[in-house]
Amino acid sequence: MNDLTQMPDSEAKNWAVVCHLSALSGCIIPFGNLIAPLVIWLLQKDRHPLIDANGKEAVNFQISVTIYLMVAVALMLIVIGFFLAPLIGLVALIFIIVAAVKTSNGETFRYPLSIRLIQ
Asked: What is the pTM of this model?
């Protein structure tokens, strides 16, 4: 298996970036934000440590965002959720873009506010 010090090739970087950007499929497909990064990570994680690390981060973040959005939907009963849900979506979009840019440079991006369920 490759170690983390090995320089990633362009294919590894591309798959790592796709792990992050595939979360945007949730805009079209229900729960696509969870399913797409999970499938890509599971299929590609053994190819390079960069893909494995970024895939875990992407999946963990999307699980976290889904939980946060469920809480926001529940809070719509007391109106605050109507403001909170779009804010969560905007922050998630910004973090996904930042993660994709950092990953394209060969770095592993750690999402803030992410619950680390997959180690």
From this structure: 0.87
